[in-house]
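just leaving the lab so this will be short. below you get a single protein, a line of residues and a line of whole numbers that encode the local backbone shape. id like you to explain what the token line says about the fold, in plain words if possible. thanks a lot i owe you, the record is right below:

…
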Amino acid sequence: MSRRIRNFLLLAPAGAWFLVMLVLPLAVVIIFSFGERGPAGGYVPAFTLAQYANLPARWAAFRNTMMLAPTGTVAALVIAYPLAYFLAVRVSARWKMTLLVLVIVPFWTSILIRSYAWIFLLGGRGIPALLDLIGISDLRLINTPFAVLVGIVYGYLPLMVFPIYVSLDRLDKRLLEAAADLGARPWAAFVQITLPMSIPGIATGCMLVFILLMGEYLIPALLGGGKVFFVGNALVDLFLQSRNWAFGSAVAATLVIVMLVTVSIYMRLMARLGNGRDDVSLM
């Protein structure tokens, strides 16, 4: 058997899965996006750009998604990095597994139940009621962008913690000891050694969280109370309620294009940062 045929046979199952589960559905969405809405809803074959011309009607959903998805990613990173650093560098091996399990514990419960818990905490009988006791009254937290941001950070924090933890756990502690022997302060050693070595974990965590947030539906629907719409909420409305499959497909295709452009730029920046780090290490 030739090498080319062997490679083809090895890649065929994954290629078929990729074709059926990703390429074909995406092709259907693109075809639908050039069609029209039928008299009773659904899709009527056509070739028109009217659906794309109508995209500004859903500008609020795109704006909220493009504002809160990156903000939630950065907020999750700010919270996750110290936690991952503590677990990887400061905690003894005896307690690492226990603390890692505690990080995973929220994933053992449905995101629906966890979101309802935050509805109570951010509602009138939760945190606002406690703040009212100390004189901070008329504070509304639920059904606001802040509530959605809290739910995003809480829901996706483990996905940010673990890639960073893996990068930091692989860090050779002898590098930090050598830096200390050479007179480097802890902060200088962190900036010059620990942070650059953890960039792959940061890049992976941010990629995972951002891509999932771009299609998020449940958290904005529950904690936003219908006032903070993401593109995912707009798609549910268009496909299931308005039954405007053509316009919904145009919105979905546009979201995919925005994600591809954003992720491509992000990956290029990470690759350039990685090359710069390698150049510095060789000097």
Observations:
- Residues 245-282 form the longest helix (38 residues).
